[in-house]
Amino acid sequence: MSLEILCPNCGTDDELRGDRRDDTIVITCGSCGLSWDRPVRPHCPTCGSTDVVAHPVPLVERSRGTQRSITAMHIETLCRECDADRLAARHDGHLPPALGD
């Protein structure tokens, strides 16, 4: 799950505008004019639950030879039910898969 928002019609993320209305945000694409609703709170696309955790994931690149460096962080939203195995592995003190290779 990601918090990245793209227009489902034209795929742009440059010309999006959001207007909050109660528990939803109405997003309008300035490129193609499509409007759609997005919940204010992140949710699981699989089960719809709002019991989710924002988890940082490092983006790793090779900087010199075999040396790997964290170049950025990406926030991934994980569901406590659907992604329980992935959350458990990260809370065991092990490195995320991107660094454990």
What does this structure look like?
The longest helix has 8 residues. A three-stranded antiparallel β-sheet has the order 1-2-3, with no helix packed on it. The chain has a two-stranded antiparallel ribbon with strand order 4-5. The chain has two helices and five strands; from the N terminus they run βββββαα. The protein folds into two domains: 40 residues, no CATH class; 49 residues, no CATH class. It is mostly beta strands and 101 residues long. The radius of gyration is 17 Å and the shape is flat. Strand 2 and strand 3 form a beta hairpin.
Topology:
Elements: E1 16-21, E2 24-29, E3 35-39, E4 52-64, E5 67-79, H1 84-91, H2 97-100
Antiparallel strand pairs: 1-2, 2-3, 4-5
Q: Spans with pLDDT under 50 lasting ≥5 residues? A: none
The count of domains is 2
The coarse overall form would be flat
Please give the number of β-strands: 5
The string of secondary-structure elements, in order, is EEEEEHH
Structural class: mainly beta
- Biggest sheet: strands, sense, closure? 3 strands, antiparallel
Q: Number of helical segments?
A: 2
What proportion of the residues form beta strands (DSSP E)?
35-45%
Give the termini separation: 22 Å
Radius of gyration: 17 Å
